Structures are given as C-alpha cells and as structure tokens.
Amino acid sequence: MFQLNLPPYPIKITEKGDKRMIFDFLRRKYVALTPEEWVRQHFVHYLVEHKGYPKGLLGNEIELKAGEKRLRCDSILYNKLAQPQMIIEYKAPTIQIQQKTFDQITVYNLLLKVDYLIVSNGLQHYCCKMDYPNQKYCFLEAIPDYQNL
C-alpha cells in the first residue's frame, strides 16, 4: 500500500477469497482494503492514539438522509451528548484534494452543522473550524488535540 503522512500503527490485514481486508477497530470488523480505507484506518488511529480522541465517540461510514437521497460520511466525531462535532472526508493518496472535495463535505455539513471539517488523502490534511455567526470558516494549521476542541 501507500506510504502516508501519518504515524504507523499495528495494522491487521487478512485475505478473504481473493480480497485483502483490513481491520476497522471502530466497526470491529474486517472491511475491504481500498486505498481510501487505508487512509481512513491510519487517520482514525492517529486521532485516537496521537490526538486523544475517544474511540467511542468516533464512527465510520455514517449514513445521512436528505429527503430521498442517502449520503455517507467517511467518519464523524460526536460530542458527549451524541451530537456530531466533526466530519472527516478521506480520499485515496492518488486523489488530489480539490474544491469538489470541500464541496462534498460541505453538503454533509448542511445536514449536520458541525464545528470542524477535515479532509485528508493521507498525504495532505486540511482542517477548518466553522464560524457560523460570520458565515465563514477558518483553516487551522494543524489537527487540534481532542482537549482543545
């Protein structure tokens, strides 16, 4: 797989038929090992092990409904009241992060109205804090530690 701009962790990979599977410690099951999933697993481990995010407040592959349309957030951080606080969108390392990636996460945020948005392809990471009263957002220099949210 790809070398990422994220710390390594003890990866669990298995084979199921002709498919490689990676263990998702949030969903507690093996899932198909795609380049995007490789980024997701590294990123959630980074948040939990290096940034102090509680594992129990993170969720992967969260479905949203907008009328008849079904959307899927890659990861969501919830606060202690089970309200969404952060949306995280992943792309494969070969996918350059562009405006359409931010447009995609913004659509999710129209439904959830979170405090933070993160986009990562495993090589580049962008985090912004929402400023709803002034109808803008501010890009942060680094992913904040959980205690600083």
Please specify the SSE layout and strand pairing:
Blueprint: E1 13-16, E2 19-24, E3 29-32, H1 35-51, E4 58-66, E5 69-78, E6 84-90, H2 99-112, E7 116-120, E8 125-131, E9 136-140
Parallel strand pairs: 6-7
Antiparallel strand pairs: 1-2, 2-3, 4-5, 5-6, 7-8, 8-9
Strand order of the largest sheet: 4-5-6-7-8-9
The assigned structural class equals alpha+beta
Instruction: Report on the biggest sheet.
Output: 6 strands, mixed
Indicate the proportion of strand residues: 35-45%
Indicate the CATH topology.
tt1808, chain A
Number of strands: 9
Estimated radius of gyration: 15 Å
CATH class: Alpha Beta
Low-confidence stretches: none
Question: CATH architecture, please?
Answer: Alpha-Beta Complex
Q: How many structurally independent domains?
A: 1
Number of helices: 2
Helix content: 10-25%
What overall form do the CA principal axes indicate?
Answer: globular
- How far the N terminus sits from the C terminus, by CA atoms, comes to 32 Å
Mean pLDDT: 95
Helix-strand sequence = EEEHEEEHEEE
Notes on the structure:
- It is built from 2 helices and 9 strands; from the N terminus they run E-E-E-H-E-E-E-H-E-E-E.
- The chain has a 6-stranded mixed β-sheet, with helices on both faces. Strands 1-2-3 form a 3-stranded antiparallel β-sheet, with helices on one face.
- It has a single domain (34-148), classed as tt1808, chain A (Alpha-Beta Complex), CATH 3.90.1570.
- The model has no long low-confidence stretch (mean pLDDT 95).
- With 149 residues, it is of the alpha+beta class.
